[in-house]
Amino acid sequence: MPVRLGLGIPTTIGPPTAPELSRWCLEAEQRGASTLSCIDRLNYPSLDALLALAAAAAVTRRVRLLASVVVAPLRGNGELLRKQIINLDQFSGGRFDVGLGVGRRADDYVCSDVEFETRGKQFDAQLDRFFRLPEPDRTPDLPCILFGGQGPATLRRIARWGGGWISAAGLGGLRSAIAFARQVQDAWAGADRPGNPRLIALAYGAVGERAADHARTHIHQYYGFLGAEGVERIVDQVIIGHEQLADARGRLTDAGFDELIVLPTSSSLDQLALLDGCAQHG
Q: CB atoms < 10 A from the CB of 195, how many?
């Protein structure tokens, strides 16, 4: 079976109004999206990921919801984030999963007055609070926690705490994601965790006559801090059209991934045609 196909909500493009977000989510669910997902950023004119997913939960019934990934150290000692995660899971009827990570944008930390260099240690302290033994008056259990990142600390966290791994869009492309997924699988087995880790790939995508233009415009806006060379590297990774999408799904299926989340590079409703792959290649 090919990997499931999910879709990002274009919260970094616009951002969308409530009616626009509602229509996007409803039509994506109707077209067969396995998951609706949001990116988490702070110092950017985007819609907050958890707020957007709460809105998505209110207008959908079946599609799963994924925050990928929440930059956890920006959210205090973790107690507020823990409550938000549990609330979202309950509010959505158990349809919510969350990816957690430390992020790679120093400006998000500067505007939060949170130290960037120690974000890994801060994150581990949050996780110790997240997963400590429940007390009689504590809130219910967390939903599935996945981890972002691509290094030894990510492997350690997945092996100890996590349900799996989410690759970052724009961080090396599918080849890099597939290579690190093998390390995740090895770390999981080495920790004697039962079953297999969930593996979710994120990738940018665009369809239609202006697909290449949409891709280049959005990547320039969102990743301009990387400079011209960095932007072009990410533009080259964007999935353009259904043929490339089918190829990506095939490669990820062979590598043991469970799902591909395509992040749109335009908020135009015609980009929901990315989900035509659910029928054509699923």
A: 7
Strand intervals (E) in the chain: 4-8, 35-38, 64-71, 96-101, 145-147, 164-166, 198-206, 239-240, 259-264
Could you give the C-alpha distances from 88 to 42, 51, 81, 96, 98, in angstroms and in order? 19, 9, 10, 7, 10
Output helix, strand, coil percentages for the chain, rounded to the nearest 5. 50, 15, 35
Neighbours of 221 (CB within 10 A): 14
Q: Which residues pair with 64 in a beta bridge?
A: 35
pLDDT lower than 50: segments of the chain: 280-282
Q: How many residues does the chain have?
A: 282
Phi, psi of 47 (to 5 degrees): -90, 135
Residue entry with tokens 């030894």 = 152
pLDDT digits (tens, 9 = 90+) for 58-80: 999 999 999 999 999 999 888 88
Residue type for 256, please? G
Contact 108, 69 (CB under 8 A): no
